[in-house]
Protein 1
Amino acid sequence: MALRLPERVPGLPVLALVLLLLPLFLGNEFHLDIATQIALIAATVVGLNLLVGYGGQVSLGHAAFFGMGAYASAILTGTYGWTSIPALLCGALLVAVLAWTLGRPILRLKGHYLSMATLGMGIIIAIVINNEGWLTGGPDGLAVEPLTVLGAELSIFDHYSLLGLEVSGAMLWYGLAALLLLLAVWIAQNLVDSPIGRALRAVHGSEVAARVVGVDTSHYKLLIFVISAVYASVMGSFYAHYTGFITPQVASFEHSIELITMVVLGGMASTYGVILGAVLLMLLPQLLTDFQDYEMMMFGLILMLTMIFMPKGLLPTLSEAVRRLRPRPATTPASGQE
Amino acid sequence: MFAEFLQYLFSGVTIGATYALVALGFTLVYNASHVINFAQGEFLMIGGMSTVSLLAMGVPLPLAIAMAVALAAVLGVALHKLAIAPARKADVITLIIITIGASIFLRGLAQIIWGKEFHAMPSFSATESVNVLGAVMYTQSLWVLAVAGVLVLLLALFFTRTLMGKAILATSMNPGAARLMGIRTQFVLMLAFMLAAVLGAMAGIMVAPVTLTAYDIGIMLGLKGFVAAAIGGMGSGVGAVVGGLLLGIAEAMTAGYISSDYKDAVAFLLILVILFFMPRGLFGARVAERV
């Protein structure tokens, strides 16, 4: 566990610096738009990683929570005229209650039965969103009001003056998404280092052993399930306001699979790894559009090959390689095996 | 009233038999390797689509079916050799992502070869339907049931009467001990993937005249097969068949009497309810976790 420390102390400032400098390298609004979307999704994935990476509990239905947050914001602000923040909080509360209620029976399940149950829960929610057109607009989707904070409207199409500077709405949105990502990482790291995080790592190692030493495993599993669901819901709300238009696709099984793939691809239980996973998985379709018809096939192939050759995920595999390259400091004979 | 019920029952049993075959494929692979193969549904698509293509080229039906099944078998072996075997030490979730990658790859390939549109396959018999007690029964349904029945029977005989079948069972119980007894476990795993692919392809071919076929039918059919396998209890052959039929009938009844919009939700609602009360499915073995 001591190995974790040097990696994460400078991590947050480095991430902040990268996010701060990134706009200088982004040529146009299109790139800025992709960066904003990636930041919002990456924050969702950081939350999912708490459950999957640290807690060792698979969720194949997390997009449902993201979708519920998105639709709660869209419906409450659009149909009922609420302002953004109360709508977001109400959505998060709804998701928390649902995750808590469903999580209790679901998290008793193990292995493939847990995958099956989370998958089933996700698909049912997606089907409801798809079918209840009177509320959600159905398969055609739903337009979403711009984000309003303290009476001010933040739209990507407007320009704002900030401290005497002329800033585009798109740039402000990028800043907001970057801040949200930093906040998500900061909360996640504190959770991981708290008693909750230690209990979860024990559950991941061996649930039975954790229970034997007195960890209330079902309590911690439920807690982290609810926390990661709320992460998804809040980011879903922001995502809905940002894109201005949502379809049931945000809650679909395919989206759930994308989210969990980001976690596994980037590296489970590595907060910066899963951010890398989100970046790559969202950039890949952009890079593959040149292949047109072959896009889907290439995507599947790259996914398969990466996981076969780097089963621990990108960042852990890379940092392992870097550690091997570095000359090893002299160790006592007793600690030869890491 | 009764005719209506019978009608729903016919269509439920037909699609249920298909789910049962997919679930048996899941069960086979799960027993041999403890991998949940999310690419299982793609074999239905490959079976159906390549049969349609071969028929269009003028190949007679029995030969077209044999060729399509052989193609699926080869792909099943390739999936094991190229994707699963190199990663056998990986986490369960990593293996899941690998099979999902494989299914996206196969779907992408199918989209290039066959396009995105639906393809129709003619019914196997010249007479399309017969009248049974006021309900219409499609002759293709009889084909589906007969073929599924024969396959289940053959599989049962294979596992109880042949050395190879017993070797698969032995590997599923304890791979280490099986290897010490001289069973080539890697070959057994390959065989399990091949059989699962064959079962999937047969199901896909049989049901294609009823439901049409397209490059992306594998997702839902695969997931429903997974649900059927989990309803029965992962790893139980009887459970897979019962789970498949139960799911098919429940779906048809919901579509008929409640709402066809929520037909697809039935499978997932059913599995949640069953798992809440019986965390190991209907026929799942009670195993203690080794610490």
Protein 2
Amino acid sequence: MSETSSSSGPVPFRNPGWAGNTGAFDLSEEQVRGDDYVGVRPADGGHASGAATYPYMKVEKSPEAPLFEGPYRERFDKILSRYPESRAALLPALNLAQELRGHISPETMREVAVLLDLPEAYVRGVTSFYTMYNKRPVGRFLIQVCTNISCNLCGGDEVLASFLKHTGTELGSTSADGDFTVTEVECLAACGTPTAVQINSRYYENVTPDSVPAILERLRKKGE
Amino acid sequence: MAFPYEHEREVRILSRGWGDPSARTLEGWKALGGYKALEKSLSMSREAVIDEVKASGLRGRGGAGFPTGLKWSFMPKEKTGLQYLCCNADESEPGTFKDRELLRWSPHQLIEGCLIAAHAIQADHVFIYCRGEFFEAVQVLARAVEEAYAAGFIGENILGSGISIDITVHSGAGAYICGEETALMNSLEGRRGLPRVKPPFPAAVGAFGRPTTINNVETLCAIPHIMTHGGAWYREQGTEKSPGTKLFCVSGHVVRPGNYELPLGFPLMELIHDVCGGLRPGRTLKAVIPGGSSVPIMNAAECEACTLDYEGVVEAGSMLGCASVIIMDDSTNLVKQVRRMVDFYAHESCGQCTPCREGTQWMARILRRIEEGRGTEEDLDTLLDLGDQMTGTTICVLSDSAAAPVASSIAKFRDDYLALIRRGERVGAA
């Protein structure tokens, strides 16, 4: 909690994923995710049952990438095969488009509408309903800080302020170097390890205002 | 690796594989006795499986606590076409963080539970609807599903039983309301996540217009254990009306927040002071939200004798919900926290019912005004009046959920509001 950890200068960032209670654990990447953890599914989606799962945000985006070609086309076809009606592939298709392009532009909505034979206005309506679709381009790292009740009780607002300060951005905007976009997010379901922060696809937990510089440094150096 | 959330008073049934990476592989799960329950269940009639679950007294872990066996029995006796099972893994109730751990530490437990449930309700296809943010958990789950397909536990003619079931992992895209069962089905169909009017109930007209049952991750994870050891064994834990163990997600101002698997009926004060290591030094208890942000707030006096089962928490003046216990000590600025919760509901309202769409926004604006020291005492009456009109007047209960913390906090912590209104004084900093 912020009161206990902010007393003595900068605290090294210790918990890449989850950790137990308030920074008392120092777990390696392997320990956090397990030795057998397979990070990202192949571009063609692997087995059709999991083809609709995706890395939410990639560091490098390709806004001009076609929808969908090569392995991505295979993945899209696998997704289509899992539902009794093609409309159900809309959210997975938008997810896939965002994985490739980084955000969902009006042009992307039009293309997805054509792919699934749906009205363009319908696709816009669905896209605007869901928070995870970025309607505008975002930085290489999309930093989403939970400020809902459990994190808020333990300093979520201060963590958000620290991210804004150290990236030099305003809420919702992207830093001049294109590296960071900082936003507020609703409960990430990691309330036992406050403050929870999602950076691109990955959760960072037990984040305190003091651990922010170390996280940003790590992102700049090593990517995720 | 020692899993950080362990405590000696826990009864680890659902959470026993947590922290052990090998438990998430097919081989590792089988070494823990996995997939024996599936084999046993497939050799039983579907009615016999439902009877065993009914005998266990298992109640839905998604918040409402509806008996699971009974819910399954609502599905058509005579099958006329495709039927579906949806697993609700759209965990997004503030304060709840159990399903993510179940997904990423014991995915095969969930898969086995899904398959047994699908057999019991004659479902052809299981859709596991995961919240979009669960990137990591979903990768682990998708890998496990792939393994189970390869081993013949999912797909055509499972283990030679003649029964065929498919499983698909589906990711949402960030909408709290999609945790409501009918909104989840709309979202799965590729629509905006708007809750549907009931009736018709999902067991008659569900996903893709077909009979559907929707169960929470934790509910389905309990099924293999019930089928292995029997309904009577499950009843050895918990209370008469709330049998079994429950994952308690404890967050907020305690020394050791985390997930603890305990028998239902566990005393709240022992959860706080023994299992979770108590409050931070020098602090006193101010308020507890026992079931996620949608249930009424309890004051310290109400917590004293409260036991954590569905009936016990109602008696103490709130609801167990999904057992997401949020602890607040005397440093808490309660008005700010209530305003933050209402902001959340205002953001997540799907907008189809006027009382909710307008009411949540009004409440948020009034609460912000009070928080900034510009409120009046009449504002409290307006809030209560709004809350009345938002309760029981909408298609789903999101509106009621937004009103609950406001009404209960005004009733129990009126002085916090008055201090801000009369003197502009904030009570508590957090």
